[in-house]
Specification:
The chain is an alpha/beta fold. Helices cover 28% and strands 24% of the residues. It folds into 2 domains: 14-32 and 171-439, 3-Layer(aba) Sandwich (Rossmann fold), CATH 3.40.50.1820; 38-162, Immunoglobulin-like (Sandwich), CATH 2.60.40. The protein contains 14 helices and 19 strands.
Length: 443
């Protein structure tokens, strides 16, 4: 079989290259595995709304007939609202909730909660979904446990132990790594596109730090695009003022649907906020990562009382989608989930830009506290034909009017889609934006 190397091919244009049947067979296998997962969702609320997170706890019960189990995941919200769990194996599950009054993600016996006796044990088969669960935390309610229970102590261990865990338990909440490590490079980025489930188990999605959290510096969260990876931001990170900023990275399987990735990112940031207590988070996103980030900004505003992200810098983002993704949806033997979100005028995109996505009316702007800076690339091969682009994304897509409408700044850079991350002009502009945002104390 002929192997075509794609390292020099723009990620989205690689759709046309990967027509090899074995690739799509693997995509299909991954999607079939995903459909076997168990999904649990519902709403959590407090009878008397008061400040402080509402934490939903997922417990996997032991064998039939036993009434004890293990906590395998949790979901935290600053307000009443929706929770969601994805679990790799069928079984018996219990969903509890408590009011995390002091915000430390640990259940203390004096905090209001829902006891075991007040909820139903859910027996879920392969691929089953249980929706509409309503959890209401009453004042004075208690969960029967021996002493404080540290929810954040949950970690994924060996690969064997990970099987049967919640996807949330396989998440990194600030694992320290060295930028340049091959695990966070191009091969893992490709793995995330074509084999997203293998990515979850082998790489682990979530937030990664290059050093321990420093409360005296502002975290800057870098978010990659399709087939992207943390290492591609190395040049920009090297130019950061490390006396003021600390780089964080959100690493995720880019072949997955963007909606669940938005939910995952929102939970990652919520947990990091609870753990470290930072007041500001700046976001720098490349390509498809910009779409994911915009979704996160809406989700984070809906779930939290206090504004957290005053700065969003998008770089070469296909706000209007990409025609090659539509081609993949229309013609590929198996469709990668993120292609549907990347196709022009997708349902995911319409929800990002309109409050009435079906009619495409009532423009949806970013939260008022967010300063959005659009950096776009416009370099292309002199011999190329068609619409102006950065050799991957058209200028029209990068400068979608619905997004420009609420932007603080739009700035063009003479660079290609991937080259823009290594361009001095990008580093200079990004540092200028970060410096100005750092001195603003209110938004």
């Amino acid at each position: 079989m002929r192997v075509i190397r794609t390292s020099a091919i723009p990620p989205l244009l690689a759709l046309a290259v990967f027509s090899l049947g074995c690739v799509f067979m693997e995509v299909q296998r991954q999607q079939q595995m995903s459909r076997q997962f168990v999904r649990i969702s519902g709403q959590v609320s407090m009878a008397n709304p008061v400040p402080g997170p509402r934490v939903v706890v997922l417990i996997r019960m032991h064998s039939s007939g036993e009434e004890d189990g293990d906590v395998i995941d949790h979901y935290s919200r600053r307000r009443d609202g929706r929770f969601n769990f994805v679990v790799t194996d069928p079984g018996r599950y219990l969903v509890l909730a408590f009011h995390d009054r002091n915000g430390d993600l640990s259940y203390d016996p004096d905090e209001s909660g829902i006891d075991y006796s007040e909820t139903e044990v859910l027996s879920l088969a392969v691929g089953e979904t249980r929706e509409g669960i309503e959890l209401v935390i009453l004042p004075g309610g208690r969960i029967t446990v021996d002493g404080p229970a540290d929810i954040m102590a949950l970690t994924a261990r060996s690969a064997k132990e990970q099987l049967g865990a919640s996807i949330g338990q396989l998440t990194s909440f600030g694992e320290i790594f060295e930028l340049g490590d091959a695990r966070f490079g191009a091969e893992s980025g490709k793995l995330g596109l074509w084999r997203p489930l293998d990515f979850i188990f082998e790489i682990r999605p979530g937030a990664y730090f290059t050093e321990a959290y420093d409360p005296n510096r502002i975290p800057v969260l870098f978010i990659h695009g399709m087939t992207g990876h943390p290492n591609e931001f190395e040049y920009l990170v090297e130019q950061l003022d490390d006396s003021k900023f600390q780089p964080w990275f959100y690493f995720y399987p880019s072949g997955g649907s963007l909606g669940p990735m938005v939910t995952h990112l929102e939970q990652v940031v919520t947990q990091l906020k609870a753990k470290h207590g930072f007041r500001r988070l700046f976001i720098v996103a490349h390509s498809m990562g910009g779409l994911l980030s915009r979704g996160f900004l809406f989700a984070n505003e809906e779930a939290n009382d206090d504004p957290l992200t005053p700065l969003f810098v998008s770089i070469s983002t296909p706000w209007g989608g990409h025609a090659a993704a539509q081609t993949g949806v229309d013609r590929a033997p198996v469709v990668v989930d993120s292609w549907r979100d990347m196709a022009p005028d997708s349902a995911f995109q319409r929800e990002l830009y309109y409050r009435d996505p079906d009619s495409k009316e009532n423009l949806r702007r970013l939260p008022s506290h967010v300063s959005h800076h659009i950096l776009f690339g416009y370099k292309r091969d002199a011999a190329s034909l068609g619409a102006s682009s950065d050799e991957v994304i058209t200028i029209a897509s990068q400068l979608l009017p619905e997004v420009q409408d609420g932007a603080t700044e739009v700035f063009g850079i003479d660079a290609t889609h991937s080259g823009i991350l290594k361009a001095p002009a990008t580093a200079d502009k990004l540092n200028e934006i970060l410096e100005k945002a750092a001195v603003r104390r209110r938004w």
